[in-house]
Amino acid sequence: MDEVRKEINHINGELVQAIAGSAQARSLPRCQVKLKRSAVRVRAQQHLDRLHTKALSHALKSVCDG
To answer: Which of 16, 39, 51, 57 is deepest in the core (most CB within 10 A)?
Structure first.
């Protein structure tokens, strides 16, 4: 269990750094378009079902500024 917690903490740290480093990209006018294209690509690549597609869509709502 300790190893799992270490891995989760490592991933969380990387996520925080990635989010902090993406502020400029998230404020660009084309952010929504690029995000939508990426979501469509991820859905196809990962073969997401309806539930996971809906979860992805919900999670991405707050990514772009504005």
So the answer is: 39
Alpha-carbon dihedral sign for residues 10, 51, 62, 24: positive
- CA separation (Å) from 23 to 13, 14, 35, 61? 16, 15, 14, 15
Binned at pLDDT 50, 70 and 90, residue 34 comes out as: very high
CB 27 within 8 A of CB 65: yes
Confidence band, pLDDT 50/70/90 cuts, at residue 66: low
Helical (H) or strand (E) element with 33:
helix 31-46
